[in-house]
Amino acid sequence: MPTSDRIRIDAPRFWSTVMRSGQIGPGKAGGLRRLALTDADKEMRDLFVTWCTEAGCAVTIDRLGNIFARRPGVDDHLPPVLMGSHLDTQVAGGKYDGIVGVLAGLEVLRTLDDRRVRTKRPLELVCWTNEEGARFTPPMVASGAFAGVFDPDWVLALRDDDGKQFGAELERIGYHGKAAVGGRSIDAYFELHIEQGPILDREAVPVGIVVGGYAARGMHVDVHGETAHAGPTPMDRRRNALVGAAMLAVAVNDVGWKYHATEGKATVARLVAWPNKAGILAEYAQLTCDVRHADRATADRMWAEVKAAMPECARRANVEMRIAGEWQFGDERFDPGCVRLIREAAQTLGVPHRDILSQAGHDAYYVSRVAPTAMIFTPCRDGISHNEAEHAELDYTSPGVSVLLHAVLARANR
Question: Model pTM?
Fold first, then answer.
């Protein structure tokens, strides 16, 4: 079972898969709009499954549509080493977010086959469902359910803005699998991802070794008011849910600015209202907000300040507010042993690298709760992400894929 540092990926082949993915679900400005469980997602999933079966992998799909492609190990009864990420995108997303991680794992499997390298432990490549949360919120629900954070039936009952149900859409596209969600032993999990921030690109460092993440706290807030005429209704009788939601949105933004000097962030990324028509006050609104900070205690303080702003915003708008759902992630610190393997692989291959914290959400956060986990970051131009201008280069990405290969190989041959 060789672990020679001479093993290298087929970089052109890897990049051709990334470029092929970039043709499925095109956006309006050169990126992608491949929302979870849409027809475009089905097309990409079908292609991914074809690639995996052509690589000799056995493919299993669980009840939430998570796709697992398994390469047997010499001792196939041992718990597998997993690699993965996601293939769904934002509404106006790029061609690399999540995608390079899944296809990097595919390239690892292909390279090992090319070199006829067998591993002691089996390897599995996973594509997680609905990581983005752009269609069904919150994000990362399928990997979260795998880790026991969410109930699978709760996930299956989620609905999008058009009222379409997660489970029904899985059935429609043919990816409502039969396998149980989670509940099995995993030796380790490795995830490669573009940084989605500017640090690696600015410093011209091709590999970031992710040692942990920013603590993130998120919630949906429901605001209830009353419809009324936008003209003659006196100001003191108005109960405009949209106004109350807007006041809270500003308060959340102010919290972000208060902690800006220490790299804190707080924002409202989504606000919906009903009826949302001219001439009538909104009876209902919902906003989605989150705060993030590298320091957990500071993130908790920011979160408390956001919640403390709710009563005054509700009073001023003469509406009711309640928290409709909360989530948190990013407190995790990744497994020292897996991090060490990534660092050793980078050193052996002569790849420049640095330690880094993730400021975004990733499936790896939830998986780290049930298995030793680590992440590799590769650069994206100017740190632009969740934008169709998101851009990555092969020369800056392929070193990270080679590091992934050698870290996974070392772990699987323990």
Answer: 0.90
